[in-house]
Each structure stands twice: as C-alpha cells, then as structure tokens.
Amino acid sequence: MRNLxxxxxxxxxxxxxxxxxxxxxxxxxxITLHFWQFWTDPEVKPQIESVIKEFEKxxxxxxxxxxxxxxxDGHEKIVVAFSSKTAPDVLELGSDWVPEFSSQGVLLDVTDxxxxxxxxxxxxxxxxxxxxxxxxxxxxxxxxxFYNKDLMSRVELDPEKPPxxxxxxxxxxxxxxxxxxxxxxxxxxxxxxxxxxxKFLPFFWSNNGKILSDDQKECLINSEEGKEAxxxxxxxxxxxxxxxxxxxxxxxxxxxxxFLLSGGWLLHDIRKNHPDLNFGLCLVPQPEKDKGQNASFAxxxxxxxxxxxxxxxxxxxxxxxxxxxxxxxxxxxxxxxxSPSATDAIEDQYYxxxxxxxxxxxxxxxxxxxxxxxxxVYMEEIIEKAVEEVMYDKKTPDEALDEAKExxxxxxx
Amino acid sequence: MKHKTTILFLLPWILxxxxxxxxxxxxxxxxxxxxxxxxxxxxxxxxxxxxxELFKDPDxxxxxxxxxxxxxxxxxxxxxxxxILAVLVNQKIPLKGLFRAGFFIxxxxxxxxxxxxxxxLYAKDGYINFLFQLVGLPTPEKxxxxxxxxxxxxxxxxxxxxxxxxxxxxxxxxxxxxxEELYKVSDVFGASFWQKLWHVTLPHLRPMTLFVVxxxxxxxxxxxxxxxxxxxxxxxxxxxxMVYLVYEQGFHxxxxxxxxxxxxxxxxxxxIFSLIQLKLFRVGKAIGE
Amino acid sequence: xxxxxxxxxxVLLIVLAGMLFPVYWMVKTSFSTEAGLVIQPKDLIxxxxxxxxxxxxxxxxxxPRYFLNSLLVAGLVTLGNMIFCLMVGYAFARREFLLKxxxxxxxxxxxxxxxxxxIVPLFLIIKWLGWYDTxxxxxxxxxxxxxxxxxxxxxxxxxxRDLEDAARIDGAGDFKILFSIVMxxxxxxxxxxxxxxxxxxWNSFLFPFILTSSQKMRTLPVALALYQGYQTIDWPHLLAAxxxxxxxxxxxxxxxxxxxxxxxxxxxxxx
Lengths: 413, 289, 271
Known about the structure:
Chain A is of the alpha/beta class. Chain A contains 17 helices and 13 strands. In chain A, helix 8 (197-206) crosses helix 9 and helix 16 (376-391) packs antiparallel against helix 17 (397-412).
C-alpha cells in the first residue's frame, strides 16, 4: 500500500511538470497572434488554415495560433477570457455580439484604419458604436424566405411566382396550412433567446418600423407601423407551426412547411443532403406593392481586436488579409452559402451564375441592423417576450408593443 | 500520533479546498454585494441591493417556482423507480447483468446529446406523439416542449429517464450489504415478498436513500443543460430555472454581481433543503433503533 | 414463487425496452446513410447501414488523441478519488477534530454553487498556476469530490469497528489499518464511487472547454460539441462519436459492477 502511494505521488508530480511544458510554446523572434474562430467544420477548417498559412508566408515575422470555438458555447469562453484579461488578439464575433462587447470597452477602436477601406466593404453598422468602429465585417449572412414548390403546386399556386407582398404571403400560407397536419403554411420560430427577434424584425423593418429614435432617447416600437407588423406576424403564425429553428429547418426539409424564414446554412444543408427538395427562395415580401421594403436581418461574422492586444498593427494586418475578397471567397465557397463582406462580391461569377446565391446577395443589400446600444441585450429580451406573448394569445399585438415601449423607455433613461 | 495521521488523511481535501475552491467561493460571495460588469471590469459596492432587486424581480420568483416544482416533481419518482428496479433486478431472475447494464446506459451518454434526441422525440410528429395517438391519448396542441403547460413536465420526464439507472446502481450496492441470514430467517417465519421488503430491505436502505435523495436534490436544483439545449427558458418562462437565470444575467447581460446574488440565494435554499433532509433521516434512524 | 419471478422478469423487460428506446435510435442513426435524425415509426427497422460515419471520425482531427485525453483525465481523477475520498471520508467517520463539522459542510458547500459563478475565479487560479491548457488543470481540482467524501463517510460510519480495533491492538499503524482492512470492506462503495466519478469526469464539458484551448488538450465532450455546426447538427457523426465515447464508460461499469455485486465477504464480520 505504501508503494502505491509513492507511485501515485510521483505520477502527480510528473504531471505537474509535464503540464508546465505543454502550454503554448511561442517561437522566439516572431510576433505571435492568437486568433479564436468558430469555423471548425471539417470542410471549412482546412481552408481557414491554408489562408492563414498564406498570410504567414507573406508576413514571415508573424505567427498565428488558431483556437477553435464551438458554436454552442463559444460565447461563454469568450466572456470568461475577456473578464479574466486573457482574451486573444483577434477573434471572431457574431454580428449581434459586437455591440455587446464594444459597449463594454473591451474592443480596440479601429476607426482610423477602417475609414480608409470603408467603401470597399459593407455592413459596418453592427460594428459601429457611438460613431466609432470596433470591428470588421468578414463573412455575411442574412435571413430569407424559403418556400416549397411542391406544396405550392399542391394547393394550385404557381411555384414560380413566390409572394411579393404580405397579402400574398398570408394567402399562400393559409392555403398550404389547410393541408395540416400533413403540412403547415408558415414556420414560426418559438421562443429562442437571441434568435426569435431575427425572425420578427424583418417584417417590422419592411414596414419601415423603427426600434429607437435616431437620438436613441425614445423607443418607437409601438408606432402604427410596428403594430401593423406584429398584427401581420401573428396572422402568419396562426397559419403555420411553431417550433425551434433547428426543428423548423428539419420540417422544411421533410416537405412539412410551406414558407420559412431561414438563413444560408439551410441552403447549404439542402444542397448537400437533400438535393431532391423542390424549393425556392424569395426576398422578404413588402407590406404592399409600393409600400415599404424587402428588409431583412443583417447578420454575419465580424473580426475584432482585443483592446489590450500587444500587437495591434499585426492584428489589423491579419484581419485585412482575411476580409480581402479573394481570401474570404475561398472560405465562403466551402461554407456554401455565405458572402464575403466586400462590396463587389456580388459581381463575382460564383454568385452571378447561381440564382439562389445571387438572391441572398440581393437580400444582403437590403438589411437592417438592430440599434447599437449598450442595453440592446435587454431590449432584445423585451421584444422577444412581447412577440412570444402575442404568439401564445396572451396579449394583443397593440398591448404587447405598448408595454414593450414602456419597458424599453425605462432602459433608455 | 493519532492527530498527525488525522491531518494527513484530511490533507487532500484541505489542499484542494484551499487552493482551488475557497477563493472562487469567497470571490463570488463578495461579488454578490457589488455591481460588477464582467467585461468592462467596473465594480462598485452596493451592499444588499442585488438581493433586494432579486426579490422584486418576477423572473426570479418564476425561476424559483419552476426549479422547486422540478425538484419536488422528479425526486420522489426517481428514488422510487430506482429503488424498485434495484430490488427487482436483485431477485433470482435470468439475465440480471443485462438488466443492470441496460438500465444504466441512459445515464452514460452526454446530456447534450440526450437533450437533442429528446427534442426530436417530443416533436409534433415525433415518436412520443405517435405512441400517444396509438393508444388514443390527447397530445398538446403546440407540441410537448412548446406548450407552457407541458414543457417543464416533458423535461422532468426526460430527467427521470436519465437518472433512474444511476441511482438504481447505488441502491444495488446497498442491497449487497444486507446479510443473507435476515432473509433466510424471515423465510423460516413464512414472510411474503412484501413483508420482507418492508421489514428487512427498506430499513437497511435508509442511509443509501438519504444519500440518493440528497445528491439528487443538490443536482436537480441546479438543472441547466437540458433547459439550455431544449427550451432556453421558454415557452413564456415556463422552463426558466435558477441556474439558467444566473447564466443569462452573468454571461449575456454581464451583470455578474446580480448573477452571484441569485446563485447564493439558490445556495441557501439547497443548503436548507439538505439540512432538513439530514435531520429527517437521522431522526427516523434513531426511532428505528 | 416461480410465477412471481416470471412476472418480475416480464415487467423488467418492458421497462428495459422503454429505457433503451432512445438509445436504439441513437445507435441506429450512427450507422445510417442519411444525414438527418429521423425518428419515425416507419424507420424502426434499419435499411441502409454503413460504418462510414465511424471511419470518418478518424479523419477529422486527432480523434484518438481526444479519446486518450479523456481516458487519461478520467482515469487519474477516478483513481485519485478512490484513494483520497477514502482517506478523507475515514477521517470524518472515525476521528474527532477541531472544526470537524465546518470542514464537512465545506465539502458539501462546493457542489451547491453553480459552475457559471465560479468559472471565472477558477480560471484565474489555473492561469496563475501556469496550468492553462494542460493536464493538471483538468485533473487536480477534481481529485477529491464532495460526493465521494460524503459517500465514503456514510459507508464507513455504518461499518462495525471490531476489525479496526482488533488490528490496532495488534499494533498496526493507521495507514495500514485504512488500506489493508477498511478499504477491502468498502469495496461496494468504492466501486460506486469509481463509476460515478469516472462517468462525471468523462462527460464533463464546461470546465475542459474553458480551461483548455488547443486541439491536443481537447477531451471528447468538447470534440462532440464541434459536431454541432453553425445552426445545423451533423447527426450521424455526432452519434457515432457519442457511441464510441460511451464505450469506455460501459467497460468501466462492467468492471466496477462486479465489485459491487461481490459485496462483503460474510466471514470477516461474523462475531
């Protein structure tokens, strides 16, 4: 027994020492940049690694150390890193996270450099806070309407004529919903934090609704435009099915949903795993033929720099390289349905000769971002709760939005 | 001499406690009295304001209600099923090993994977609805996880499914400690299966029952992963639990002080529950003797 | 009597079927050729089966390394707990000392606090020790688990002292008494402890995810999380990986359960 204890102690001691050696060894003489990113998919990761290798070749004095983040919990890891002052030099953040972090003062102000290249890239709003820029748009995505052509044919609608107005969308959904429980009209997102608002706000924005006044001192969510939008959304939800985003995507692939608001990942999934699905894409419809817009949610991945980085110049170099159209396009091709943030990406052959991808590009041109306000996370929750209460018949759209306005006004004080 | 070895015996825990756990516990306790923004690092002492705000927060009370319901609703069933299964599997029946392993397997897989699978099972056109419709039972209009009346119950059912096997194992271990002679003696007196169960088996299982109920309580009060994966607190806050509230406040609203206060209220509740259970079982034991 | 046993057997069989139903679908999907998770009655009998998903695992990142990492970490934590919880539990069960109750409460306190609250300060400590992204970070803080201490204390308290007293009269030292006499008597409890600690450590996700960052320190649960893609889930591969990840636990279970069933040797305790 004594021997066992001694052996055990030795094992622990050796572990401690071996552990010390295993930690990140940095090559002497080179500047090391730590880069945290989310693309760990076996098809995309090698592409990222090769782009990084090219960067290292062009900049031999810089070494990039990559760390993988999981989509499900990466946000937590980033928060822990920042709060313990161990955040990496460069990291990837989702578009709705950038204002969270920039308003807390942990991201590097890159306005001076960004101004120089501003016109070459689009969707700067999520990265802008109080007129300063804190990140670079990298890989963009948005939400668009997917519809099932087979289901449309079944209810005697022309599958090549997707809805262009709210009236048409509601009508088509009603017709398909008559097939239930075999199929439902509209796929409505259930209460999923940080997701539901991305499905409702496109309609809100299409009706020219505004969440906050320009000076951000007042909440305008309960304007007549806003109420119209929520009333319409409720009617739409009643002609369909409520479920989580993942389940809705599944149902759509199984020809159980006629119309769904979803993003690029679904397009990629269908092409890869359900090539026989007879589906189409269309822009978010306008309220009426000549009223409103085809607005959607501006989403995507941004590259930001840690405010406390020791190598800001090199960090900017890395980001500049990654967002360049040619490099970014390589990644987007592997991801399957995203777009580089470069303004001229839409003109690339890759998008021009693919009608579905081209439509995504068109929708990208008409996106709106939520207001960049430090308390946006709270507002998001209030809006999502309001929409949920309407979906579950606990409040009328008017009541819900009036209450939401009061709560958000409280936050703005 | 004795004292020296006592200290040596206790050393592993003392070291680990002091090095790794004491600081985090005190740190978070102190934080609960501050307004602390986890990212910007701004910190301000505000005394018990967090706790006062907590008690005025409707979400806090909803979370407390849901969590308590979850605890009270799952523990009796899990304990009961685990105990019964252990007793049954311990009988002289063929394929005991198969049953032991089979019941244990649900506890093995990662909770995330199980939660994802159950989301599919609970879907509107999922298997569970299929079975219900087969026997003519009604199914919720919007779906199990999407109706505010059934969402929490569905997660509770899943939790019972997952945990029973593990606790069955604990009871099986305890059953082995019951001397064979006691059963032989009761056989001589002509005792039935139920009489043996009640007079011989159950009293001997009391310490293990306490242990099972205690650790199940502590774990159940902290339920998080299933909520995070399946419902994110919805629908209409019906599955909002204390730890999920702590997570949202701390990691998405960056209000670590407030989140810590919530965590400590939870801590006290668990502590009180545990102390009550310890007292109850000890009193019972004294009477039994 | 016979009849009773048959009833019990049938009841158990039905319960078993219900318990394993979701597991059946998990394993079936891991062998399927389709991309999604389809749990429909019509698909009850598997049609197209393939082991491609399992083969793919080996090509996506160093899967054997993840497996070994998990094995090393879970193995050492389990071993450590079996030895240390025995020691600490024994002290609580048999000895009196200053601040005994407070120290025992401290054991229970630790598991009553949600992980999200202590993750940041724990991270700071690990960083300060220079253990970020190393094995010790995943092993040492968990070498003595509160539940283990509690379990051992309960169990040892219920053992009669006769043998220990006899050994002491014979002049045996404390450590000898603990490891030669008490430990064998605790076999069922140690086995349960072993399974519980191994299982918890094997499936542990949050701490390994936060406390490590490089691929070579990755453990299986973190690797599994990577199959949850950007808004989609790679089901066949996720389930194949989960099935492989479950195997060592089953092996551990089979090993430990024999210890549980072996139980106490009746002879030693006869007065």
